[in-house]
Structure prediction request, 85 residues.
Amino acid sequence: MSVNANGVSLPSQELLTVVCVPPTGFPRPRRLSSTKNSVTIVWAEPSDTGGCPLLSYKLFINDGNGGSEFLEVDALAIRDKPYLN
Prediction:
């Protein structure tokens, strides 16, 4: 209900909301194996999801030469490759 100089309004319908905060406690990914042309990494879910379920992950790469630029790996490019865990 709202209240103003005109009085009190009729009650509105209830609205249920869920508030999430960013997840925390992400363990660092670790290298499982690698070759000259590929790397397999694994990671664990965060210890705290922030109150909402995680729906997906994104993978970013860096050239490893000290730069700060990270590129997102295209999920479609790796989706049909089960060896990319």
About this structure: The first strand starts at residue 3 and ends at 4. Helices lie at 75-78. The chain has one helix and six strands. Strands lie at 3-4, 7-8, 30-34, 39-42, 60-61, 71-72.
